[in-house]
Design brief:
There is one protein chain. The chain has helices at 2-28, 31-71. The chain contains two helices and no strands. The longest helix is centred in the middle third of the chain and has 41 residues, at 31-71.
């Protein structure tokens, strides 16, 4: 008797799980479900692209500051006679 009760409970649990998965798959394959998944992917990609853009902008700023520090003319405190433009 206990054995039958166990198999009945196990079958009901497996059957409930299968029904749940089939219903979930059915909802995912409707036009609304497909649009919802696509919208989720687009939102993820948009966030990733925004993050990439911020990282690239920061790297460009850092590189520009380095180049300006290294190659920009230093005119502060110099007079024309000391500079290269005086003749």
């Amino acid at each position: 008797m206990m054995r039958r009760l166990f198999y009945l409970a196990a079958g009901a649990a497996v059957g409930g799980y299968v029904v749940h998965r089939v219903e979930r798959a059915r909802r995912a394959l409707t036009p609304g479900g497909i649009a919802q998944r696509l919208e989720g992917h687009v939102t993820e990609y948009r966030g990733a692209l925004r993050e990439l853009n911020e990282d690239l902008a920061g790297a460009v700023r850092d590189q520009e500051e380095e180049l300006l520090r290294r190659y920009a003319p230093r005119e502060r405190g110099r007079t024309l006679t000391e500079g290269e433009g005086a003749r």
